[in-house]
Amino acid sequence: DDDDDIPQLSSHTLAALQEFYLEQQEREGMKTSQGFNQYSIGSIEEDWQLSQFWYSDETASCLANEAVVAAGKGGRIACVSAPSVYQKLKEQDGKDFSVCILEYDRRFSVYGEEFIFYDYNHPLNLPENLLPHTFDIVIADPPYLSEECLQKTAETIKYLTKGKILLCTGAIMEEQAAKHLGVKICKFIPKHSRNLANEFRCYVNYASGLD
User: Fold this and answer.
1) Which CATH superfamily is domain 48-204 in?
2) Of 19, 66, 84, 183, which is least packed with CB atoms within 10 Å of its CB?
3) What is the pLDDT of residues 160-186, one digit of tens each?
4) Taking the mean position of all CA atoms in its chain, how far away is CA 9?
């Protein structure tokens, strides 16, 4: 029989797969029936393989509000690897600011022209129309707790910002954050929707409302 060489899923695996797809369809159906906001945190689910951990709703709101105040009226905000802050900013539709999201995960391309594909390994590989020093504040959350990742992300941040930087990363990165970006730790302690093993903190280089 020609079918002998085709690998077959066990009935148990097949049932588990069907259950997974059903649950996924139900989740999507719920989002639609509830008039789900495409900018809500969780509308795009975390991918742990990409080291994605979304902020809690309270933290995302706090960081978004801080960015708006820091950017000022008509300000431009860049969210680098910080999609949950971008989503929270977009919920404030109609406010007097503009925002873009630089992100490796192409699922966020659903946000249209405001999405910019970004790989921290190539920190200055950015679109030509993304001019240097044109953002009033850059908020960034490097995906990995390594000096290499922070240093490369720092190149992007310094290229984009007019001056103000809001960095979110592990407490263990305090020395490297000061070294590469001249930022200092804030009193505000960010929380995630799932608890992380590493203590997380915010850092700024300006007088912020996070202290």
Assistant:
1) Vaccinia Virus protein VP39 (3.40.50.150)
2) 19
3) 999 999 999 999 999 999 999 999 999
4) 36
